Amino acid sequence: MANAKPVVDELGELAAGLDALDSHIDAKPKVSKRLLGSIAPLAAVALVLVIWQVAVLLKLQPAWVLPSPAQVWTAVVQRAVDPNHNTNLWFSAFNSLRKGITGFLIALAIGTPLGILLGLNKKLRLVIRPLLTGLQQLPSVAWVPAAIIWFGLTDTTIFAVVLLGATPSIANGLISGIDQIPTIYLRAGRVLGARGFTFIRDILLPASWPGFLTGLEQGWAFSWRSLMAAELIAINPALGPGLGQMLDNARQLGDMAGVIGSIIVILVVGVVIERLAFAPLRERTLRNRGLLR
Amino acid sequence: MNQPNPAVTLTRTVEGNGDIAVISNLAKRYGTDGALVIDNLNLTIRAGEFVALVGASGCGKSTLLNILSGLDHQSSGQINLGAEPALLFQEHALLPWLTAGKNIELALKLIGIPKAERGARAQELLELVHLPHAYHLRPHELSGGMRQRVAIARALAQGRKFLLMDEPFAALDAITRDLLHEELIRIWEETGLTVLFVTHNVREAVRLGQRVILMSSRPGRIINEWHVAGEEHRRIESPIVSQLSLEITDELRKEIKRHG
To pair with A207 at 20 to 30 A between CA atoms, which of A1, A93, A153, B160? Predict the structure, then answer.
């Protein structure tokens, strides 16, 4: 059967051999490692709970100042099963999240074109960027009194505060992302014939994505805390339920377990959004670009 | 300017006819009173030709390619191109957020190939550069040689008949470079491309080029030109390559000493 041997593509075989020797295809991360990554932070939570419980048992403070973890848990459960929609935890959390996300998306819609414009136009950037950076430094809660006077106790006030908090971070993140693009990708894009809108969509935005993503994460964090600040100050039944209101209600009733429970819920919502939305995006971005170590 | 060396004759046949690039009296100066980078450069490249351009640092090789590809503009002189060129960099320039296949598909998309045809066409091009299984791999998962082959496939995807290569293999190890020389010649023969290959490696130039052009430095001018004769499929170790490299290197050294 020796003469039935197919014609050998020597160059192709040589290439295949060399490629096999030189390339390294990323292995999927081990399940055990991923599991450890998601369990490890719980150890810190457990530690805090233990210290808290010990402090309660030692009666360092009276119960109305420092309630026990169990009392706080009860306060949270009470709110979770509360039949009144205006004080129910789920309705409050959902309504707050809806406002936070809506505000964030509006900030994204404003911050993205602004970031692209300032990322590409260096002269305009000289004029506008200091203003953006200044706004980013300003705690957006400072806008709440002004917004209340302008827009009254309405959703517009809430959105205005969230926008002023998130937009500068998003725009600044995108500008940094654009600044960090290696020149070679921009040249490659131009050589491939990407111009105008196509250049922005196919080259500029994906190339600046790592920096942009950081801006988005920060933008979301600012959205969430601006929203909570606004909800704590701008109290009006017409605004509907919210976690900020829930927290303020508990304070007015002198219900310390409710106060701490509300704080924990606000914290958990922030962490959950980060873990569910941003962490996977960040990991995928780094993995796809071979930046994960 | 010196005449082509008449002692060596062109043996490789050239397909097609007509000129793909006619460069006349080209000069480039950065700024209004900066130093001349390229001075009075005249070069004609015929369709289907493989031209290798050698020179030391500062000979304006990369500037010339940037001007030819439209990324930069000459200060004076004329360039007539028979076809829009594609430029290949020393770094592979693959976009890291796209797989090898999608990098090629982007090039196809930007020249207006309908979406339905892109996948199959990209796979064909990957097969042409001997990378049939690389479609879903990311640039960082490829070796340097594989990346350059994907970059070549992407340049071919643009449908360009004229390839400008700016020291594309300089960063590769010797074994890989040797393989890519062979691959490039094979692709050139299969596709009837015109190649202008810029390098500082004289042996590489003689190994690949039908014509080797030597440039002076500061300012860049063409100082000599050789037609490479010899085997149809020469290798970097071939006697003709060593012989001619020696001759060209001597002249290159003379040129470099002038700047000492």
Answer: B160
CA–CA dist B202, B212 (Å, integer) = 9
Name the closest residue on chain A to residue B131, using Cα atoms.
A16
CA A256 to chain centre: 29
A99 touches A227 (CB < 8 A): yes
C-beta separation of A202 from B106 below 8 A: yes
User: What pLDDT score was predicted for residue A8?
Assistant: 55
The pLDDT value recorded for residue B230 is 63
Q: Report phi then psi at A128, rounded to 5.
A: -90, -30
Residue among A86, A98, A133 at smallest CA distance from A237: A86
Q: How far is A129 from chain B (nearest CA, A)?
A: 28
Asked if A92 and A242 count as a contact pair (C-beta separation under 8 A), the reply is yes
Which pLDDT value is given to residue A234?
84
Whole-angstrom Cα distance, residue B116 to residue B259? Answer: 56
Q: Over 60: is that where the pLDDT of B99 sits? A: yes
Average pLDDT over residues B6-23: 49
Interface test with B, best of A9, A10, A18 (most B CBs within 10 A): A18
**Residue of chain B whose Cα is closest to the Cα of A13:** B130
Respond yes or no on whether ipTM tops 0.85: no
List, in order of start, the domains of chain A with CATH numbers.
Answer: 61-288 (1.10.3720.10)
pLDDT for position A238: 81
Domains of chain B: 1-84+161-171+179-197+213-260 (3.40.50.300), 93-159 (no CATH)
Supply the pTM of this predicted model. 0.80
Contact between chains at B95 and A207 (C-beta distance less than 8 A): yes
Q: Cβ–Cβ of A202/B110 closer than 8 Å?
A: yes
CA distance A292 to A286: 5
Find chain B residues with C-beta within 8 A of A290's C-beta. Answer: 96, 138-141
